[in-house]
Amino acid sequence: MSKQFAVIGHPIEQSRSPELHHAFAQKTGIDLHYSKRLAPLDGFEANIKEFFAQGGIGMNVTVPFKEQAFAQCHVLTERAKIAKAVNTLWMQDGQLHGDNTDGQGLVDAIQALNWNLDNTAILIIGAGGATRGVIYPLVQAGVKKIVIANRTLARAEQLVADLKDAVPQATLAAVSLEDLSGEFDLVINATSASLSGDALVLPETLQFKYAYEMAYGKPSSFLDQAKARGLPTSEGYGMLVGQAIESFSIWNGVKPALKDFL
Ligand code: ATR
């Protein structure tokens, strides 16, 4: 029987993970089957137990279960501990292991665009789980300064307070959305504004070279403003593929090249 993998979420129908993992498997010659699992909101733990009891090898976890997955794991990677969220599960020696590949997926996607991260200053808009998950991998990739801007300033300040000891090589700071200004190499939109169709307004006093939108397949006022300035932009499909490749490589020991799947 082929190796069994799955993604678990609620909802789950929209997930692109099965097609991505089947494409990686085809490219690397690995025999696997990757399915979607819809768990009821109170049924996450029972569902993953059943999957691994039936011999499943690895699971991806998506909304709204990443924090529950973090809480269930016996063994966590450093980046998962810092993210306080897990998107990749596997069993080893009878213990549930968890990692978070979202941040490395973003780093790999940005590097595939040939946008430099080493010694850079970046602005991240948003202070939710999506931002928390990417700070440590961005600093590992050489980012020296990260400013987190959020509609609710207190949330950005809390995130900076929580994470500053985890990334001593970098400077972290919080600002409110109204006070956006200054010069950055890269601006990342990690808010859910595009998903809900809301506009973000970037003032002219905010200067930057590149713009990355974590969402994909939705109109983005954030990217529209960067494009109007003639800047290079990307939406988040590369990050989605990048996190999937990183999970695949943890489970299968082979890392397909991101550029082959963009
Ligand atoms: P996720 O886990 O995807 O990060 P989240 O924790 O719900 O989701 O966080 C959503 C982020 O998008 C928050 O930073 C939120 O700002 P607040 O903390 O002020 O709520 C931000 N956000 C959502 N809609 C927004 C909008 N219309 N304008 C600006 N920021 C928005």
Question: What is the structure about, briefly put?
Answer:
The chain is α/β, with parallel strands linked by helices. It contains nine helices and twelve strands. It has a six-stranded mixed beta sheet with strand order 2-1-3-5-6-4, with helices on both faces. Strands 9-8-7-10-11-12 form a six-stranded parallel beta sheet, sandwiched between helices.
Count of helices? 9
Main β-sheet, spatial strand arrangement: 2-1-3-5-6-4
According to DSSP, the number of beta strands is 12
- Which hetero ligands occur in this complex? 2'-monophosphoadenosine-5'-diphosphate
Rounded mean pLDDT is 97
**Class derived from helix and strand content:** alpha/beta
Q: In terms of per-residue confidence, which ranges show pLDDT below 50 for 5 or more consecutive residues?
A: none
End-to-end distance, in Å?
Answer: 30 Å
Beta-strand proportion: 15-25%
SSE string: EHEHEHEHEEHEHEHEEEHEH
| Helix share, percent | 25-40%
CA-based gyration radius: 18 Å
Major sheet description = 6 strands, mixed
Shape: globular
Can you walk me through this structure?
The protein has 262 residues and is α/β, with parallel strands linked by helices. The chain is 35% helix and 25% strand. Strand 7 (121-125), helix 6 and strand 8 (145-150) form a beta-alpha-beta unit. Helix 1 (17-28) crosses helix 9 (237-252), helix 5 (102-112) crosses helix 6 and helix 5 (102-112) packs across helix 9 (237-252). The mean pLDDT is 97. Bound molecules: 2'-monophosphoadenosine-5'-diphosphate (ATR).
